[in-house]
Amino acid sequence: MKRSGGWILGLIVVAAMIGGGWFASRRLWKHPVTIVLLRSGNGRGPTDDAIERGSRFALQEWGHRAGRYRVDLQVSGPDNLAASTVWLGTSEALLLLGDHQPAGLSISVLDTHPIEPGGCFRISPGCARQGASAAAWARRSKAARIFLLRDKPSLRSEAVASAFESEARALGLSVEGPADTSADPVDRILASGSDLVFYSGEEAPYGTSHKIFSALRRKGFTGRLAMGEADPEVSFLATRPDLVDGTYLVSPFAPAPAELATAMGTTPGPHVTAGYYAMKAALEAIDRADSMHPGPLKEAAARLRYFDAQGRAALRKCALYVARGGKFEFVELLE
């Protein structure tokens, strides 16, 4: 009887220990974490809304959990910040924030400013990557002579043009320009003998590229027409501007993968997709770090597939599209 009673008492003690550990771990798991999605301004716009939709979808997929943490999302303007260790936002929102309440982990959803933000990880390719990718594609397309156009005073268009010119010349390509679109460059392009025109992009509302490209076609230009995205916060891919058939677009927004479209029940646009991957990266970093301290968080993020060794976009690449019937169709990913 004494032996039996001892076994029973031992089982009770073990059960109590297990139960206490379960409740302790449950309390640990319930530790709340807030990820802040920074709006570009104090108002709300369609880009902010699209990024939020993608972020919330990723958070729901993870069941609002990352490791032992319960995770919530708060959307804030720069003047109404919640205390948070993780921030998501456009590069412009992160740059405007400056050093105010520095976060342990900052992720740029997409680059909307020509200056690359420091100290953060970046989901989407920026100006330099876009220009270099366009130049590499131009070389593969066997262009013999390229005419480079840019918009002034669009700083992003100038940044994309500068990266394109630098990479194209390094690849041994012949480049004329850059010429400003305000100078009515059509006759100069025709006289140059170029077989490819690369326009580094314009600000929304779009119209300059159609005006120049359609004039070139009317005057007999038979070479390739291509342009970049100088306003990714709006993006050609999220609008329906007038397009010259056969125009190529080099964009920082690759199409959403098929599995994401299936999960969402629709094909998500560029900003929804970028928001989705930004939130996934944040959750994976928290999960791997098992900590909300800046050091472990940044170390965990640096090992994720989304970023290269410098924290720039690695998983999400630039993509080439072509205009057909008034809309852009995907052609290929660009390295």
Structure report:
The longest helix has 28 residues, at 2-29. The protein is built from ten helices and 13 strands. The chain is α/β, with parallel strands linked by helices and 335 residues long. The radius of gyration is 25 Å and the shape is elongated. Helices cover 40% and strands 21% of the residues. It starts with a helix and ends with a strand. 45% of the residues are buried. The strands form two sheets. A seven-stranded mixed beta sheet has the order 8-7-9-10-11-12-13. Strands 2-3-1-4-5-6 form a six-stranded mixed beta sheet. It has two domains: 29-124 and 256-302, 3-Layer(aba) Sandwich (Rossmann fold); 127-251 and 318-334, 3-Layer(aba) Sandwich (Rossmann fold).
Describe this protein with a few key phrases:
alpha/beta; Rossmann fold; 335 residues; 10 helices; 21% strand; 13 strands; disordered N terminus; 7-stranded mixed β-sheet; elongated
